[in-house]
Amino acid sequence: MYQSRASVSTPNAERLIKRLSNHWRHKFPVQLSPEGADIELPIGTCSLHNTQGGLQVTLKASEEEQLQRMQTVVADHLQRMGNDEALAFDWQA
Description:
Blueprint: E1 2-9, H1 13-24, E2 30-33, E3 36-41, E4 44-51, E5 54-61, H2 64-81
Antiparallel strand pairs: 1-5, 2-3, 3-4, 4-5
Protein name: DUF2218 domain-containing protein
């Protein structure tokens, strides 16, 4: 299992979690809680958690290529959900 994490600085973590969860809810299983969300994508899982000062994103996939694809897809979608807010993703294994 391959895993990567990114801590994203944002004052809008809760809103981003809700928007992305609602966006993907019609396509993928989503578990939303007060602390965050777990989204089961066909290529792996995406966990989003509201932290002090930001958003913690954890991705897990069975293949390295899938993990890299998830990093791109999740970052792109969160950036769109953030509207004008510039989000920086520094993925760590």
